[in-house]
Write a structure and sequence with these properties.
Layout: H1 4-11, E1 18-20, E2 23-25, H2 33-42, E3 46-54, E4 61-69, E5 72-80, E6 84-86, H3 95-106, E7 109-111
Parallel strand pairs: 2-5, 6-7
Antiparallel strand pairs: 1-2, 3-4, 4-5
Length: 135
């Protein structure tokens, strides 16, 4: 069984893990989302989902990546100023659908992939879940 500390060592992240909201969270400390996905795959973790939040003002977006390892929910967050982050769907097939959903809902581009329409009609502009100030 893989320990949380061994995951932190594998990522080269000092830790510590923080437990909140029923999950264990580790700051990826500058590691890329692809580094995290590769490490989680190496540990035998199962990709669960991505949660996207628009930050206030022009602070960008917060993306939370969730993994399951032997019944423990593990989370890593990435704050992106631009609406671009690397795709992991080629590393984790389960990420395909949620990357498409986040792209359509929040206009985030996952580099290294193309999109088939998921919920939006062909030609519709992504970003339907972004807030508009003043409304």
């Amino acid at each position: 069984m893989t320990s949380l500390d061994s995951i932190a060592v594998l990522l080269g992240v000092p830790g510590p893990w923080e437990q909140k909201g029923g999950a264990h969270w580790l700051d990826p400390a500058g590691r890329s989302v692809r580094d995290v996905a590769a490490a989680m795959n190496a540990c035998g973790a199962r990709f669960v989902t991505i949660t996207a939040y628009q930050l206030s003002g022009d602070a960008g977006m917060r993306l939370e990546y969730h993994w399951d390892l032997n019944g423990q929910l593990l989370g890593f967050h990435f704050v992106i100023a631009s609406l671009t982050i690397e795709s992991i769907y080629d590393l984790c097939e389960a990420a395909d659908w949620i990357e498409r959903e986040v792209h359509e809902g929040f206009a985030i581009d996952f580099t290294g992939r193309e999109y088939e329409p998921l919920l939006l009609r062909a030609g519709a502009t992504p970003g339907v879940n972004l807030r508009e100030e003043g409304k």
